[in-house]
């Protein structure tokens, strides 16, 4: 995994840059000590590390604007960072760049129950929004497993999902507006408390843009009323393929649960040892299906789902009888990633999305790849929308195992694309999937995406080295090909 070659001339000007940055962000807002920089050398994808040149921790949108304005004037790269929980290397620093940390933007600015929205700063944690509004019976729907720590700004950057995204959507489906700062320091506001904006969908464009287009400074999120009733079903199967068939059967029947999560035997045992959630240990695969809404509807759909799963071979079924039990079912799933960390020195968390009907075939192929590479894999994923999160278990202290894990992971992602899926569902591309973008997009696709990048950031200073396997100069991408004196599509009017 290669990053852009550091600009030695910029590194040589570090002291001068630090002085100018401290004039913008005084006090302890500029970090240069190597030991203190070490805390920012990686994000959740800890296999890759790099000390940043400088870390800047602004407290106001004006300071963010001035820092970006300075960076553009000085030709210095900037990597935006939220809580650092990204699992794709999206916040990996650069040796010649400023790491712009938004952790001090941690206030909820407004809660508007009448319009069912909240205005928050990007450093507010995902769970923090729900905690601020649950007293009035509201909540924020997207709920990544890292919701206790991940920030809403990072959720916007990666278009994060969570266990309830099947029914309630990803981050992009729960946003109403953004305030963002462009690389030249311009502060823009997109959307607001209204449902939709006219003209171009810039809100959709910025959501999931991984810090390549702008720095998010404020977010307006949609709030939902807490459902009248929510109950969860635990359903055990003798094979992962049977569980995958059951997922397809539930959706085909027209039932859209709040969430359908799946865990295989290694993940079940790790989570149960860690949390004691009451999971059965004698099954190969476990589905957690949650249904919410009016009590009568939930009661009816619980029986429908149980019947579908038993017809597909479920050997175990248990329904939550109270809220405490429902939360316990989810506690095991939410803690699955750290739980797996107890059974392996290291693991590599992948993220790819496939059509639901392909679940059985893909799970079978992953077992074959596991045997081929000699590495175990634990599966924990959002089965309802086909968003896979296989955890490849390895030991970084064993020579060659990290490289094998990376190859194994690449093969899984290629498989996702091969069966009609995509490289990422919610973790983003970052550096992890950057060099695989060519398996999903051709050169025309990638150049078109880079033209969008150039429209926002012509000097390509925001988070370079991420997403695109090969960077092109904006001037090069802007060229128009002339063949025998003819421009492309000569009949189109040009202005």
- Sheet/helix structural class: alpha+beta
Helix content: 25-40%
- Global outline: globular
> Residue ranges: pLDDT <50 for 5 or more in a row?
none
| CATH level-four homologous superfamily name of the largest domain | FAD-linked oxidases, C-terminal domain
Domain count: the total is 3
CATH architectural arrangement of the largest domain: 3-Layer(aba) Sandwich
Number of helices: 17
Termini Cα gap: 43 Å
Count of DSSP strands:
20
CATH topology of the largest domain: Vanillyl-alcohol Oxidase, Chain A, domain 3
CATH top-level class of the largest domain: Alpha Beta
In which order are the strands of the major sheet placed?
15-12-14-13-18-20-16
Mean pLDDT: 93
Bin the strand percentage.
15-25%
Explain this structure to me?
- This protein is an alpha+beta fold.
- It folds into three domains: 25-101, Uridine Diphospho-n-acetylenolpyruvylglucosamine Reductase, domain 2 (2-Layer Sandwich); 116-225, Uridine Diphospho-n-acetylenolpyruvylglucosamine Reductase, domain 3, CATH 3.30.465; 229-418, 3-Layer(aba) Sandwich (Vanillyl-alcohol Oxidase, Chain A, domain 3), CATH 3.40.462.
- Helices cover 34% and strands 20% of the residues.
- The strands form five sheets. The chain has a seven-stranded antiparallel sheet with strand order 15-12-14-13-18-20-16, sandwiched between helices. A five-stranded antiparallel sheet has the order 5-6-10-8-9.
- Strand 8 and strand 9 form a beta hairpin.
- Helix 9 (240-252) packs across helix 11 and helix 14 packs antiparallel against helix 15 (401-418).
- The radius of gyration is 23 Å and the shape is globular.
- The model has no long low-confidence stretch (mean pLDDT 93).
